Amino acid sequence: MTGIFLLIGGLTLALYPLVLYPLLLVCRVAIQAGDRGQSAARAGEEDQEEPSLPRISITVPVFNEVHQIDELLGSLVALEYPEDRRQILIVSDGSTDGTDEVVRAWEDRGVELLRVTDRGGKGAAENAARPHLTGEIVVNTDASIRIRPDALPPLIRPFRDPSVGVVSGRDVSVAHHGADANTGEGGYVGFEMKVRDLETRAGGIVGASGCFYATRAGLHREAVPPELSRDFASVLVARDHGYRAVSAPDAVCYVPRTGSLRREYRRKVRTVARGMSTIWAWRRLLNPMRHPGFAWKLFSHKICRWAFPFALALTLVGLALLAPGHMWALGVLGVAGLLGVLAVAGWMLSREGTSLPFVLSIPAFVLMSNVAVVHALGRAVAGGSERLWEPTRRTSVTE
Question: 317: buried, middle or exposed (CB in 10 Å: 19+, 13-18, 0-12)?
């Protein structure tokens, strides 16, 4: 009985955030489909008379990005938005490689440079930028991300709804020059975007994409401790102030995948550890008595996903206990062992800029992701997340 109990419990916990939670969102959307609030939940999807465009500030924290800063700035000034309604602010976090000089050369194109002399990390750079932002809406992105030229209007449009405080763009994960050692990341990003779309239609999302998202200036001015994740915190701050966050499927940005699973592992440990620290700082939002719908989504989308490696461990223990008396359990355990061997082999063989066969890349990505969550939990419990780190070096892509 213990084996059956562990197997059922582990499978339920593992499948809930990946299958049951999206299905429950579909049911919730269907139930409220005829409600008056549905148009607001769709975050301005319906055609309306275009009001005047708000002034926006696009801010990018950078550290030693001279290898791609010209390409980044060229893509930003080419975005389809009136120049007189747009501020582009590059925040150099103590760069030492000539990044600042390249940015200054773009000043006649409307690009501004804010140099932070003492390097403090991305969070500190974002906090330092707040007094210098002039827009009603603050658009956040990263140096290696390329925003589709027509992406700003759909990102800004949902702010017509006064209840919306944060809008998240849609990430499209892309490989560089066909070399892809990290295929699994593309599938995961696609799944995440679909879940956010469902959450938006069900009232709002619980986390924004750090690659491309926008916030009302009044909310963005709130200080977020530099060791926390501002993109995640932006949604929690908005909720604290009575606003909701939504996704904008037509606001597309292209996110290059990291070139190897080893680099992706380091990135994931950092982001998950910061996410855990951030949710702990706003743990009051998990109170279902005060925030019933939001608390349910936050628990399901974040905490239950982070519980996946432990659910997997429970499932394997249950199978191991059942295997001596049940051939089916022994067979499933054997398949799991084979997948584990493939996962380890794929992880070990992953090299920068080289492709892995599907049969290795997917198991390796699943293994890497779950080990990273356990590592991140240990880091968060032991002493919180990193305040300062080298930025993840992604090879930029131009679409």
Answer: middle
The average confidence (pLDDT) of the chain is 87
Angle made by CA atoms 344, 350, 356, in degrees to the nearest 5: 95
Phi and psi torsions of 167, nearest 5°: -130, 130
- 175 — pLDDT class (breaks 50, 70, 90): confident
Per-residue CA distances from 240 to 40, 234, 286 (Å): 19, 10, 12
For the chain, domain boundaries: 38-260
Domain 38-260: what homologous superfamily?
Answer: Spore Coat Polysaccharide Biosynthesis Protein SpsA; Chain A (3.90.550.10)
Please report where in the chains the tokens 């709002």 appear, as a residue: 204
Residue 358 contacts residue 183 (beta carbons within 8 Å): yes
Q: Which residues contact 160 (CB under 8 A, 6 or more apart)?
A: 44, 48, 51
Q: What is the pTM of this model?
A: 0.88
Distance between first and last Cα of the chain: 55
Distance set, CA 157 to CA 42, 52, 154, 214, 308 (Å): 11, 11, 5, 11, 36
Say whether pLDDT at 370 is over 70: yes
Angle, helices 308-322/327-349, rounded to nearest 10 degrees: 140
**Percent of the chain scored above 70 by pLDDT?**
89
Predicted pLDDT of residue 51 = 67
pLDDT of residue 382: 85
Q: Which residue has the tokens 């997917």?
A: 362
CA-to-CA separations, 91 to 47, 103, 114, 135, 231, in angstroms, rounded: 36, 10, 5, 16, 16
Could you give the C-alpha distances from 156 to 215, 230, 241, 305, 321, in angstroms and in order? Answer: 9, 19, 19, 30, 54
pLDDT at residue 386, as a whole number: 59
Instruction: Give the whole-angstrom CA distance, residue 337 versus residue 385.
Output: 33
Instruction: Scan for tokens 């996946």, then name that residue.
Output: 308
In order of 223, 270, 375, the CA distances from 226 in angstroms are 9, 13, 21
pLDDT classification of 389: cutoffs 50, 70, 90 = low
